[in-house]
Here is the input.
Amino acid sequence: METNTAVMLPEALSIGLPEIDAQHESIFRCIESLKAICYGSGPASLEEFENLLEYLKYHFASEERLAGEVGVDFLDHATVHRKNLLALRRAFSEVQGGMRDLHSFLRYIEYWFERHITDEDKPFAATIHARQATARDNSPAACS
Ligand SMILES: [Fe+2]
Here is the structure.
């Protein structure tokens, strides 16, 4: 079986948090794979889309955990995550109910995902980096 090793996460969307960048890469790969199936060999199973939504839930939880580890307030970001998941679930329910097709859902989730990184995760990463820099500056010196 051939493995696609191409990097899917555009450099401009890298946020400098390795765990989160790796998850973003996985999500882009999943979206690309679903697009290849839907626009190529045939319809993807709805289970594959369900798996993607579950992974997004895991991804959001990872961001929340990371924020907690460095003491960054995450209340507003978590609220956005909940609204995002509800909107994506609603759109996917429309697919399941035959009111929206899979291509429409794929266009929606791809556009939403790039905005998620740009509008929500980049400011989040900047806050994390600033917090980590402050912690480094305040750490004791080994010798004077
Ligand atoms: Fe994210």
Q: What stands out?
A: The first helix runs from residue 18 to 41. The chain has a mean pLDDT of 90. Residues 20, 24, 59, 63, 116-117, 121 surround fe (ii) ion (CB under 6 Å).
